[in-house]
Amino acid sequence: MASFFHSIRIPRVLGLVGAALCFCAAHFASARPDQPATDSVGVIDGEAIAVTGPMSAEAVNGEVKNVLRSGGDVRVKSGSARIDLVEGGQVSICGPAHLSVLKSGGSLTIALDTGTVHVHLERDLPLTIYTPFIQAQIVAIGDGPRDALVGFDPSGAMCIRANLGAIRVEQQLTGQSVLIPQTGDVFLFNGQLDNLRTSVGHCACDLQVAKAAPPRQPVVSQSATVEALSPKEEPIYQVIMPPLIYDANAKVQPEIDSKSIVLVRRVRVRPALIFQGRVEGADVAPDPPLTPAPAAATKAPKRSAPASDSVVDRVRSFVRKLWSSGS
User: Fold this and answer.
1) What's the predicted TM-score (pTM) here?
2) Does residue 15 surpass a pLDDT of 50?
């Protein structure tokens, strides 16, 4: 009789598993690329990854990054990948792995098919990890951070590790649940919670350290040198024109309108020159000495001034005038 019920239970379990997988697939297929920007999950980066579904390219810290959105499907072929969540935190994916993400109502859901994920959360972001048999929800202790690992080893056993916080594990088919406390490390076979066993580092997936960009050095202004003021490079010209169009069905390809072509010349503005200080000229040679004038050109001697008349001379002159008038 027991074998009879066992033979009936197996097809029923497989049917429920198929229904659960179809439900998850329908859930993720309902997410479309035209959803608003609030469905952004985070920036994804990896060396050997394939991402299908909603994704966008955005500028983050001056660099163009691929932003994973709700409904995206991620396949890590080898190595590992990293998702920096927009709410803060990180999801490291250790491959080979395959998973899908869904973000709705401020909560994040990860549907894990193969591989291992290591989640670290600093903020209160509800996160649930679904597998074909198990639903794992990461629970915070107070306002502390959460750090958990969920995945599969090469043999197919499921690994669950609660580094920070706790993990509520629920069997999707039977509804049976168990709470794994902080620092708990277990693994189970065939999704059966009755077969929980203690595991010590059975699955490994370390968090990836973000590559920090080198700090930008401050620009210190300096005086322009003679070499900078007299550039030797030739002018640079750039041609901006519309893209070329090739029509395989047309016998003659359309020509580009010459009015849409722009020729740009790159120039460098020289800085203004400001002189401070004193400007001195060259030394001036002294004037040659003057030559003496010839003897003929010498000045004539000055005439002696007449001597002043004495009293005797005046009397004598007066007497002479009297005699001359009497005669």
Assistant:
1) 0.54
2) no
